[in-house]
Structures are given as structure tokens and as C-alpha cells.
Amino acid sequence: MSGEPILRVEEATKAFGGVLALNRVSFEVGEGEVLGIIGPNGSGKTTVVNCITGFIRMTSGRIFFRGKDITGKPPHKIADMGVTRTFQIMRPYYSLPAYKNLVIPLFSPRARRTGGWRGGGRLGDRDTVGVDILEEIGFERESFVPYKLASALPTGYLKRLELARCLALKPEVILCDEVFSGLSMSEIASMLPLIERIQMEGITVVMIEHRLRELFRVARRIVVLNFGEKLMEGTPDEVMSDEKVKEAYFGSEEVEEVMTYA
Amino acid sequence: MRDEQRRKERLDRGIKVRADSLYALMSWRELSYLTAPRLLLIVGILALPFLVPSLYWQRVISVVCIYALLAVSFDFLAHFVGLVSLGGAFFIGVGGYISALLNTSLGVPPLAAIPIAALGGAVICTVMLLPCLPLRGVYFAIVTLMYPLLLMRVIEAANIFGGTDGIMGVESFPTPRVEEYFVIGVMLLFLFLLRRLVNTDLGLVLRAVKDNDQAVKASGISITLFKALGVFISAFLGCLAGACIVHIYMWGGISLFALDFSILPIAATVIGGGGTLVGPVLGCFILVPISELLREFGTLRIVAYSVILMAFVVYRSEGIMNYGQRKYHQFERWVKV
Questions:
Q1: Theoretical Cys-Cys bridge with B252: which of A62, B68, B100, B282, CB 3.0 to 4.6 Å?
Q2: Residues A183-239: pLDDT tens digits?
Q3: Total structural domains within chain A
Q4: pTM of the model
């Protein structure tokens, strides 16, 4: 990590009633890196994403994007600045075909500004641009898939559609909330290069993940959360050999599997 | 020994035939398949004033079109923006009062006062509804129901705008024919425009707000802005209807805020089929004449009304238009099993 961090979370705290979902969590995300956030169920991973993207208001703490304070800004303003997210439970527009789903982000002020939407006319209307983006993300252009209703698509494609919605905005940061969950091994295998390509395009990726082995293939740095507190931060190897992490994940097959694998 | 059994097979017509695209131009059959139902509606409505017997029934047609505008605006807001508004009376009242006041105190002729009232009323209604936009579902419905009641009591208590007597001497349209065709034309025009709008990119964003507002936020689009736009369009149509009705009745008063204007459009949408925009128009063409026919039964007509509504909700909850569209696009035949 070098230079100014693109995203800085300072002492993020969120209380739901008496429950502290996040307790003074701080970390930084460097420009262009892939950061993994892991933790057992209920450790506050999704809450971090919700706080950063403004979907829930923090009890206290601050969040900086490129040194600018974005704490308490509404979600659409934060997305407009280039900090986008995917949803763990996919949120496509079920009544629209897949490619029409992308018309909405392409209609946004950010897409007009950044050239995510090429401007129409000879360069193609939003529908064409939508199909282009879908093709990039793994929908076969010549097949029926991009033109199917989102409600008829399988999970794998919906997860891709979530990513496509972010990409349509030409984002600077993508926060992926469990893009691998619910996917088969082969589907994940085809998603990994996608994440790598997104990173190569210079987009910073924060990945929240339960699938540790796959995560460690793309993420260089990991933040571990447990009961809303930051347990530790380090490279995948450091994290996996840490006693506290082992304790938090005690009994989880995933970690044992990863550790025997590593 | 088994009897020969038959079952009904339903097949969708070919996609090309149903597609609303260049394919329609390939043959007269396909062209007419697509345009016939639309032409039937347009020509039918345009010819109606010549088909009905008396001046009284011509007036009923104008009123039907007023309700149709209101029902279309309800359907648009409910099924394409996701805000169920019971504020039909609110829109009618605001538009009606503005147009009546413009006409009586400033002497603006009806055909100029109506567009001004529609635009001005839409701005006022949107601004007044702005605080309610974060509300969803039944909460938004209840709040919008309160507005007409509130304004009605304010006018009554403060005795402004003619108080309970209302505003007398509002100028009517030049002739009955102008009145009918103005209202019919406006109704058909905005029906056409709205059907276009919901399929443009802007319309898709509005529909997306209904489908999944979180994802719209995550796309960097302010949902409040687009909800406000939806309310503005809906309020514009409602105020337009209200502005027309004061010039038809030549009177504007607190009965413009009557609950009928909020309830009937919803009933018409249920009967006609929500989400089609044409359905509510058909619904109005059924409900309003029925209520006129039953006028001599007095308040008993509410019973007839309710029975029709209940029958539709129970047996054909999708509405006439959705049912009709499906049947139109399907073949049915008996096949041997």
C-alpha cells in the first residue's frame, strides 16, 4: 500500500439498539488493491459495507474517500462519487430483461459524466451499451441470456448482473458483498478472472467473503472482523496462522480446509 | 374402454406477430393485428359523442373522460412509480380551484386557464407532497387521503375562495362539441404520451424505483427526485382533469375534494386492469355510465358498484385489459388427449 488511501474508515461504530454491530472499526483501502474482509456470521461485515455506502447511518465514526469526508452522505451521492456496491441478496429489477437492468445505472448522472454511457446516437443507445457491459461480464451476447427477464436468470448470472450494475457507473471502488456465495465451484472459477480484470482496470475492490480459499487467490490483504470488532489485519498467510482468528473460526470447516490446503 | 378425452390447449401467437416492431410492417394481417385494437379504442371514443342520444349523455362522456384522466394518473403512479395515491380528490380540487379562480377573478378564458391550472396545480401538489415521498405503501396512501380532507376543511373554516358556496359563474367551454372533443382529445393524448413514456429510458428508471429502490440508490440516482417527477406527472394529469371539470360544471367548490374522485379511479383501475394504462380508461367507461344509469336508485347504486367491484376482485383480479390482452395473444383449441 503506497500513498494516500482511497478509502479510510475511522472508528466506525454502529449500534442496533443495544447491540454493537460495529465497534470502533478502522481500516484503510489502498488505491487499486483488492482488500478482503472476512469474519464469522454476524461479525458485522455487511454492516461495514452499508455504512461506507451510506445505506445505514453510523452511530459514530468517519469515512473518508480520497481524503474527503463522506460520512452521512445519502447512498446515491456516494455512488455518484464512484463508491459502488453489490448486494449480498441480489437486487435486480426482476420485471426487466437483464440488459434493460443496466439502463438505470447508465441513466445516472455519474454515467453521463464519466462516459459510462457513450452518449447515444452513432455510439449506441443505452440498450446497446448495456449489452456491451453484460458481454464483458460474461453474458454471451449471441445467446438469449442478456435478453431474458432478470426473474428468469440463475444466481450466477444475477451475481454478475450486480457487478455489471457497478461497472456501468465506471466506479473507482467496488464493494462486493459476498459475490461468491451461493455459486458452484465452476461458477466461482469463472468469476475470479473477472475480479482480477476489474482490478487491472484500476478499480479498487473490497470483497466481503465467506469462501476464503477463493478470496485468498485475489486479495493481498485481509481484515478480520469478529463480534463487530477488528480482530486483525494482514496478508492471507498471517491471518490464517493467527491464533485469535483460529479461535473465532473454531470449528468452521472452511478454515480448517483452507489451512490444510495452505 | 375409456372415453375420448379432450383438453383445451392454449398457444401463444408467434413472437414476431406480437412484437411491437418493424415486423408489424411485413403484412397487412400483422399490421392490422397490432393496430386494430388501438384504432378501435381511439375511433370508438372519438365517435361516441355522435352515437349517444342526448345532450345529457354527451355530458356523461365528458365526465367519463375526466375520471379516465384521473384513473390513468392513478395507474401510472401506482404501477409505474410504486406510490399508491388516494389523492385523486386533492389533484382535482387544486386544479379545479386554480382554474376557477383564474377564470372568475382574472378573466382568463377556459382554454388558457386549464393548461395554466394544470401546470401550476401540479407544482403546488408536488411541493405539498414532497415531505411524504419517503413514505411507502399504505402510509403514502393514507397521507394523500388526508390532503383533500384537510384543504376542504381549511376552505370551509377560513371561508376563502367562496367558502361552502364555492365559486359561481365559471365560464364554460364555447360549445358542447368543443367541450367533448377537448376532454376526449386531452385524455387520448396523455394516454398515448404516458404509454410512450413508460417504455423510454426515463420510464424504465421510474419503474425501477417501484421494482427495487435500493438498487436505484446504489446506481447513483436520487429516488426522491424521480418519485417527485412521477408525482408531478400524475398531479399534472389530475389537475388537468380538475381544471376541465370546473368548466364543465361551471362551478367550483369544496365538493371537488369529495372522496369519489379518490375512490372511483381506483375501482376503475381494478376493473380495467392495473399496469396497462388503457385498462383504467375502459374501467371508467364501464363504471361511470353504470352509476349514471342507476341514478334513480339513489344511494342504492353504491351497492351495485360494490358488487361489481367485488366480483372483479374475486373472479378477475387481473382486470379486463390484462385478461383481454392475454386472450388476444393466444390461440385456443381443443385437442385429443
A1: B100
A2: 888 888 888 899 999 999 999 999 998 888 888 888 989 999 988 888 889 998 888
A3: 1
A4: 0.89
pLDDT tens-digit profile of A171-181? 999 999 988 88
Q: What CATH number corresponds to the domain at position A121?
A: 3.40.50.300
Interface contact B208-A92, CB threshold 8 A: no
Which residues from chain A sit within 8 angstroms of residue B212, using beta carbons?
91-94
Q: Kindly state whether A112 is in contact with chain B, defined as any CB-CB distance less than 8 angstroms.
A: no
Identity (one letter) of the amino acid at A123? L
Measure A97 CA to nearest chain B CA, in Å: 11
The domains of chain B, with CATH numbers, are 6-336 (1.10.3470)
Contact list in A for residue B208 (CB cut-off 8 A) is 93, 96, 104
Answer for the pair A224, A230: CB distance below 8 angstroms, yes or no.
yes
CA distance A167 to chain B (A): 10
Domain with A215, as residue range(s), is 7-261
Nearest residue in B to A76, CA atom: B220
Q: Which of A84, A96, A109 sits opposite B218 (nearest CB)?
A: A84
